[in-house]
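Worked example 2:
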Amino acid sequence: MSQVRAKKHLGQHFLRDKEIARRIAESIEVTSPTRVLEIGPGMGVLTHFLLENQYVNLTAIEVDTESVAYLHEYYPDLKVIEGDFLKMDLNKLFTDKFYVIGNFPYNISSQIFFKVLDNKDLIPCCAGMIQKEVAERIAAPSGSKTYGILSVLMQAYYKIEYLFTVHEHVFDPPPKVKSAVIRFTRNDVSKINCNEQLFKTVVKTAFNQRRKTLRNSLLPLVDKGNPMFSDALFDLRPERLDVAAFVDLTNRVEAALNK
């Protein structure tokens, strides 16, 4: 079978550098029997190194029919699911914890991470390659200009590590941006000390108007005249708040709504 043709609408950029693929595969540090889900294996450059690890019980999910046929031919023993990761019920696919890895399509990487968050109790580790700018944003500390929604939500439940940068020339076709490999490892927070659904809403609402102070950006949730807004906290912009401060903010918003 010939090489798979990269499809622009799927955001495909096939990694050609085997050394980088090896480093990505090793980023999940599997040293005991572990179920691993690879998202978007394409022609299997990362798959090859994952399968070399005797402890990895690998399942691949691929939306591209041509890539699925390629994987069946060159990796006949690999379990391949043809479908869209974003539409899958992971609780039906896995009954126990599993790792996630991949050279993630850049156009849906944020959606992938939101789904990882939704299944955080099943996924103790997630690692892979994404656009460098997105990786920097997720790993950014509070106070940074790139700190945002994904930064707060991922850092609430995972330890974030920016591992290394990947340059454009190692892909076919080369993307117009640099890439990076990032790793999320589940922290010991089983449940944050606030309403988790409201926490997500508060974070998203605050950053939807990130140039405004919290007093103004949170108006879609709480009326302007609410006494809550008299606190100096609401003079700040959202990027100044770390995870703990957003938990406190969520509790304040919930109290204001209940009154």
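The CA atoms of residues 33 and 54 lie 8 Å apart. The radius of gyration is 20 Å.
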